[in-house]
């Protein structure tokens, strides 16, 4: 499991002025809950680069006041104009305790529909899951090796390991082999010609 070290400073004040002061110094106010106690802290915005700006799933190793906890991001707020990180919520990973998070979806295999001129489109990049820290994985995989033109694989087709439950709607399409317009026109033309031959 990929991890990112976060060195945080414990917050003792929670006024608007103290929050503003943290952000003025390029800090990001954070909260971590789910463990024995809620921890409010802040860290420099550069600390979160490898955790936030990546398609990969990573665990944060948050150290505050000499205590290190493993956690995952639950929610993140960006400034509506500058896109700077304004606040992050973390869920502490407690052994044996259920955690809800999102995992990336990796597409594996080669779709037969692509070999015949179709285009593979990944409709969904992440799925909601429910698991424990012990069963947590970096990604989910879905096999597209049976996909023909115009067909899709769905959330229910994702193969999961023991201890992971995907909670996203099972009918949601994950990947589809799209039929390009030119190919569709050619296929329609062939259908029309066959019909004419049959009439003849």
Supply database-style keywords.
200 residues; alpha+beta; 4-stranded mixed sheet; 4 helices; elongated
Describe this structure in words.
The structure is a single chain. With 200 residues, the chain is α+β, with helices and mostly antiparallel strands. It contains 4 helices and 13 strands. It has helices at residues 16-24, 49-52, 112-115, 181-199, and strands at 3-10, 27-33, 39-44, 59-64, 67-78, 85-92, 99-108, 119-122, 126-131, 140-143, 152-154, 165-166, 173-178. A hairpin with a 2-residue loop joins β4 (59-64) and β5 (67-78). The chain starts with a strand and ends with a helix. The model has no long low-confidence stretch (mean pLDDT 92).
Outline of this structure?
The protein has four helices and 13 strands. The protein is an alpha+beta fold and 200 residues long.
Share of residues in strands? 35-45%
Q: Total helix count? A: 4
Q: What series of H and E elements makes up the topology?
A: EHEEHEEEEHEEEEEEH
Poorly predicted residue ranges: none
Task: State the share of residues found in helices, binned by percent.
Answer: 10-25%
For the biggest β-sheet, the strand order reads 1-3-2-6-5-4
What does the average pLDDT come to?
92
Helix-strand blueprint:
Elements lengths: L2 E8 L5 H9 L2 E7 L5 E6 L4 H4 L6 E6 L2 E12 L6 E8 L6 E10 L3 H4 L3 E4 L3 E6 L8 E4 L8 E3 L10 E2 L6 E6 L2 H19 L1
Parallel strand pairs: 1-4, 2-6, 7-10
Antiparallel strand pairs: 1-3, 2-3, 4-5, 5-6, 7-9, 8-13, 9-12, 11-13
